[in-house]
Design a protein that fits this description.
It is a single chain. With about 150 residues, the chain is an all-alpha fold. It has eight helices and no strands. Helix 4 runs antiparallel to helix 5.
């Protein structure tokens, strides 16, 4: 009897994990984003920007800030999608609304460089300082070499 119950539980668990893998709505956004990162970097999966975008989009649709930021990067750089700096900014802003500091850095750099927006050094400085104050290394590094207003 114990063997039958054990076998039945194993079948149920295996079926559930297969269902989760087949249906992204049953997966959590962090794992979708992590898998997207594997496709983006080629570490843990064959490098595939289009697949990374699909996974980031699924997680972003669930409101996951890190995925929104990553998707913004993909649009900014035209990786796996057509380059669209305005769309990238939309994703950065959505991630920033959830206080995701790397999004403040990316948005600040866009304002500093005029990528997808009119160049606004004061806005860039404010965003980058906010991110740097929160510990974002990329923001700190950018501020160290940028000539932005106080």
């Amino acid at each position: 009897m114990f063997r039958v119950l054990t076998a039945l539980m194993l079948v149920m668990i295996t079926g559930l994990s297969q269902t989760r893998a087949a249906d992204p709505s049953l997966r959590d956004p962090a794992s979708l984003t992590d898998e997207g990162n594997q496709y983006f970097t080629g570490k843990g999966a064959a490098q595939d920007d289009a697949r990374a975008v699909e996974l980031y989009q699924q997680a972003a649709d669930m409101g996951y800030a890190r995925a929104m930021h990553n998707l913004g990067f993909m649009y900014a750089e035209g990786r796996g999608v057509g380059q669209d700096e305005v769309k990238a900014l939309d994703f950065y802003r959505a991630a920033l609304e959830q206080s995701y500091l790397p999004a403040a850095t990316s948005l600040g750099i866009a304002y500093a460089d005029g990528r997808g927006v009119t160049r606004e050094p004061r806005t860039a400085a404010m965003l980058l300082r906010k991110a740097a104050a929160g510990g974002d290394k990329r923001a700190k590094d950018y501020l160290a070499q940028a000539n932005l207003p106080p």
